[in-house]
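User: Is it possible to get a 3D structure for a protein together with its bound compound? The compound here is AHG. I've pasted both below.
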Amino acid sequence: MEKFQMITTIQQHVLQQQEELFPDARGIFSSLISGISLATKAIQAQVRRAGLGDQLGAVGSTNVQGEEQQKLDVYANQMLLHCLGRRDAVAMLVSEENKEPVTFDRARDTGRYIVVFDPLDGSSNIDVNVPVGTIFSIFRRPEWERDPTKAVLQPGSKQVAAGYVVYGSSTILVYTAGRGVFGFTLDPSVGAFVLAYENMKMPEQGKYYSVNEANVDKFPPAYQEYLARLRNGSLGHEYSSRYVGSLVSDFHRTLLKGGVFLYPPTKTHASGKLRLMYEANPLAFIAEQAGGMATNGIGKITDIQPEAIHQRTPLVIGSRVEMEAFAQCVREVEAPVAAGR
Ligand code: AHG
Ligand code: MN
Ligand code: MN
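Assistant: Yes, that's possible. Here is the predicted structure of the complex:
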């Protein structure tokens, strides 16, 4: 029999947190996290059975992004809509897979939260057994705003909580509610997310950079110069490259090991590929809480006032040293251009 070990489940952790954070929450906030925990346990069960049923491949439809939907995209989306939609605390759900917000006719004082999510991130990796994930971001519903879309369009700095689940060699849920970053490993023997990482902090500097090198010739000069500096030892050591192609995996490694992840703008995609509301914002909140930084190349990701729920943004996110070096490089390369020299 294994030695008795004190465990803290994510539900217990959120209840402890919310006593301090949301004294008026009356258990509402923890019910949201329970909804996410339940949905992602069901999603991971399907991800881990991929190939044994009808989970793989495309469904033959495209989503609002014009991207081919994978069966697991649709399954994950339906599971999150179902598990969260039943929680009275939810006023609205916004998903990568739904063009418009899904609203619920709730009393104003119960339906107080908006959950924004990418139900399955890294979909192109599903069929080849590379880790994928789920990303979520939680806002309060503004008291005064009746228009659902306008109610969602809040800057990342207004997030109440944010997190992700990475379906990797283990299933790990990482979240922040503004008082530090915590990681929970799904323990199959208990069937619960159990606290495994207290107060996660991103190292000051790492040894990996993460970018899709196939696009490097299309990046703006400042990005190209920055990548050259990472490779030539200008930051004190030469970097190695890691690119999984699932944002949650590339970010999770950066959170644990430090370094920098970039999805830059290109000539054909001036706003890059990643979505502000359900990819960049939640990870930027976590990075900032863990001592890192996140930018769109101009300012902080969490300062951006969204104009559309599916809008894209360039994303550079990582450790303090790499991020300060990136800002310095942009100033040096773009200042002369801006001055017209
Ligand atoms: P999603 O599967 O939710 O559409 O996200 C995929 C994203 C992100 O996970 C990853 O960082 C990026 O696509 C990879 O894009 P490239 O294949 O263009 O590098
Ligand atoms: Mn994604
Ligand atoms: Mn997705």
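The helical segments are 10-21, 28-47, 71-85, 148-152, 221-231, 247-257, 276-289, 320-338. The chain has two domains: 10-197, 208-339.
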